[in-house]
């Protein structure tokens, strides 16, 4: 290996108190060692709320990526030969350490990602839950014995780890999108190379430190930071990598799927969404309004499964719009570290420009701005806060009705019949999550079955949980994460035909 010694910690002292005096880890983790880039280049990590540089992480390239794959490959056989219970103990220990350090990890996440502290704390618990669940589920990864057609034969089906897994994660959930993949990968006996998003590498590195403290053997988890292209290309060129698990945009997912074809990798892709949220005349309106706020404005709307377009039946349209507007007006925008803030900054300027262009497009096509529709100035902060917004009279031509806005914008349209609602909800290239609210049990089953989405929230806007299969259809991706289905993604089936 050509690594320089671990980079000097360049944490800005002013951020120390915000992370409870803990040194920020800024080096990458390869084969159990904290390493720097061969040429000394670094990447700045900035707080989106203030534009201040929090830290500089190592910008690794192709050579270091190969080293990370090498470390994962070498650690593979030993890790795979441990028992599921041994692996489970270590994975669960990592979850316990994350919970122990929830406050520090949550502050770190808010600093690099911007989400309100309460949401960041919630994400750490959510992230740990994937590890706990996988730690147990690994023990239930069973093979089969199938009756053979000859008396002197036996057919055995074994489940074995896929092998070295490349995990590429997004900035919107810097911890949970890692553990959702890491938990089942480790439990199934795979070793991993994690490439976190450039905007939010610090949470990933902090998880890496805790993994070392948990006693997960060297090389089982490798975490490399840097620019996507050289790292990704080196991963896809290396035949020792056998699996890609990616969460991010449909555009990037499509590109990675092409690159993964070179070595015919197993792939799991959790991509973009454009969730419809349907409110029928017979819905419990209190629940529908509360759920609409929670579903739309979580993480300032920067969530793949958050509601993107609301369809409300004619009989309750005016009531829903006015009650939703009141709830939205009560949301507090500001720095995620400030008490009571519910909407933090957008991740970067490009995100702000996209939100503004969607609003401009909607209003130019007849959308009625009911609440918001403008930037919010937060004293002493970056110009990156957008008011939670409600646009009524959405039409299918509007960008908000077709593209992921990834911001705090709720466009609403009126519909008349159940079949119209289903047709309009399904009129999307995406198929990740959909929501609807009704008190009619027969309609509930009918609509749930008709929606062309991988996840359906029926009177529920918070479907994410460790034991459920999370994933989409159409352009929203391939494969499922969470629950026992996730174990399938990280295990290979081997058939042994045994002649006695
Ligand atoms: C996402 O959709 O961006 C992840 C959110 C979740 O796991 O609930």
Folded structure, characterized:
This protein is of the alpha/beta class and 500 residues long. It has helices spanning 13-16, 62-81, 84-100, 102-113, 117-137, 176-187, 201-214, 228-237, 250-260, 285-297, 317-329, 349-364, 418-426, 441-450, 483-489, and strands at 28-30, 33-35, 42-46, 53-58, 144-146, 153-161, 164-168, 192-195, 221-223, 241-247, 266-270, 275-279, 307-313, 368-371, 389-392, 409-415, 430-431, 433-437, 455-458, 473-474, 477-478, 491-499. The chain has a seven-stranded mixed β-sheet with strand order 14-15-16-13-12-18-19, with helices on both faces. Strands 9-8-7-10-11-21 form a six-stranded mixed β-sheet, with helices on both faces. The protein has a three-stranded antiparallel β-sheet with strand order 5-6-22. Helix 3 packs across helix 7. The chain is globular. The structure holds succinic acid (SIN). Succinic acid binds next to loops.
Summary keywords:
500 residues; disordered N terminus; seven-stranded mixed sheet; alpha/beta; 15 helices; binds succinic acid; globular; six-stranded mixed sheet; 38% helix
Spatial strand sequence of the major β-sheet: 14-15-16-13-12-18-19
Q: How many β-strands, per DSSP?
A: 22
Q: Over all CA atoms, what is the radius of gyration? A: 23 Å
Gap between N and C termini: 47 Å
Number of H- or I-type helical stretches: 15
Tell me the structural class.
alpha/beta
Strand content: 15-25%
């Amino acid at each position: 290996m050509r690594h320089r010694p671990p980079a000097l910690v360049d944490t800005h002292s002013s951020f120390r108190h915000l992370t409870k005096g803990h040194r920020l880890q800024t080096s990458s983790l390869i084969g159990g060692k904290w390493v720097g880039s061969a040429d000394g280049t670094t990447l700045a990590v900035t707080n989106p709320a203030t534009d201040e540089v929090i830290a500089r992480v190592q910008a690794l390239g192709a050579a270091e990526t190969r080293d990370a794959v090498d470390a994962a490959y070498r650690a593979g056989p030993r890790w795979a030969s441990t028992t599921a219970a041994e692996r489970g103990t270590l994975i669960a220990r990592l979850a316990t350490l994350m919970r122990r350090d929830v406050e520090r990890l949550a502050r770190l996440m808010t600093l690099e990602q911007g989400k309100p502290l309460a949401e960041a704390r919630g994400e750490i618990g959510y992230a740990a839950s994937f590890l706990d669940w996988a730690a147990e589920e690994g023990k239930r990864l069973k093979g089969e014995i199938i009756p053979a057609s000859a008396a002197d034969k036996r057919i055995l089906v074994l489940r074995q780890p896929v092998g070295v897994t490349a995990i590429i994660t997004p900035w919107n959930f810097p911890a949970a999108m890692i553990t959702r993949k890491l938990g089942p990968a480790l439990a199934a006996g795979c070793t991993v190379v994690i490439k976190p998003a450039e905007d939010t590498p610090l949470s990933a590195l902090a998880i890496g430190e805790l993994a070392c403290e948990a006693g997960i053997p060297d090389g089982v988890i490798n975490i490399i930071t840097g620019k996507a292209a050289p790292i990704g290309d080196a991963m896809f060129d290396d035949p020792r990598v056998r699996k890609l698990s990616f969460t991010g945009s449909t555009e990037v997912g499509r590109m990675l799927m092409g690159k993964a074809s070179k070595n015919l990798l197993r792939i799991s892709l959790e991509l973009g969404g454009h969730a419809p949220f349907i409110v029928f005349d017979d819905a419990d309106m209190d629940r529908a309004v509360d759920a609409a706020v929670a579903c739309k404005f979580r993480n300032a709307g920067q969530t793949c499964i958050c509601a993107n377009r609301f369809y409300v039946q004619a009989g309750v349209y005016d009531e829903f719009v006015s009650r939703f507007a009141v709830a939205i007006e009560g949301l507090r925008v500001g720095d995620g570290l400030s008490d009571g803030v519910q909407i933090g900054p957008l991740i970067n300027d490009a995100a702000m420009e996209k939100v503004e262009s969607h609003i401009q497009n909607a209003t130019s096509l007849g959308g009625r701005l009911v609440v918001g529709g403008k930037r919010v100035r937060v004293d002493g902060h970056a110009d990156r806060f957008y008011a939670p917004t409600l646009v009524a009279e959405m039409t299918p031509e509007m960008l908000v009705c077709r593209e992921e806005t990834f911001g705090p914008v709720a466009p609403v349209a009126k519909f008349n019949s159940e079949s119209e609602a289903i047709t309009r909800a399904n009129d999307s290239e995406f198929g990740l999550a959909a929501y609807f609210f009704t008190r009619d049990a027969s309609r509930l089953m009918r609509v749930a079955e008709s929606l062309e989405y991988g996840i359906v929230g029926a009177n529920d806007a918070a479907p994410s949980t460790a034991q459920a299969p999370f994933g989409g259809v159409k352009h929203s991706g391939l494969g499922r994460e969470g629950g026992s289905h996730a174990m399938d993604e990280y295990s290979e089936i081997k058939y042994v035909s045994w002649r006695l």
